[in-house]
Amino acid sequence: MTGQHAKALEIDPFTGVCVTIDFATPTFSFGGTNAKAFTVTMWIYILALPVTGEIGYIAGQSSNITAAGWRFSVVPSGTINFAVPDGTGGVSVVTGPTIAIGGWHHIAAVYGAGASSLMYLDAKPGNPQALPATWAAAATSDHLRVGCSSDDQHQLGARVDEVRFYNRALSAAEITIVKNAQ
């Protein structure tokens, strides 16, 4: 599949095909006591938004977001969100901008480890929002996924390219550099 840069992965919500990344021995963790900052970036071409009442996982590591892990997703309205457990059986969410069907867009989710967390669309930042500084890390059996949740649900109808994970919160200038990299 043609991507933003060379080839891309197409995720079909009807076949359940998504990317599983073995994260049993991660070089950095997502969540836990005094969770560390991290950033997820990628190019995405939305083919279809989720149906009402569903979400489309962009990336994440959780089969039950209210208990542990994290989720970068899109909802039926096209709004992109970043969520972590809030420690009380609920979910804390950073609401990002709205992404349209069709056309390549660069998106990023920045978890600020208790400081400001925010979403970017085409290197333009959304509103910073606070997320918990401590949240339950996903079990190592909850593999890191792109295009569906850890239990193979919530598939996203999209093409993805240049998926990157950073073990720190990238600045706005760095997000622009990543977006503009060839």
In short:
With 182 residues, the protein is mainly beta. The protein has one helix at residues 172-180, and strands at 9-11, 19-21, 38-48, 56-61, 70-74, 79-85, 91-98, 105-111, 116-121, 124-125, 129-130, 144-146, 157-166.
Helix coverage percent: under 10%
* Biggest sheet record: 7 strands, antiparallel
Low-confidence stretches: none
What is the H/E order?
EEEEEEEEEEEEEH
Taken as a percent bin, the fraction of beta residues is 35-45%
Shape: globular
Quantity of strands, as a count = 13
Mean pLDDT: 82
Oligomeric status:
single chain
Tell me the number of helical segments per DSSP (H or I, 4 or more residues long). Answer: 1
What is the gyration radius calculated from CA atoms? Answer: 15 Å
The N- to C-terminal Cα distance equals: 18 Å
Strand pairing plus helix content: what structural class?
mainly beta
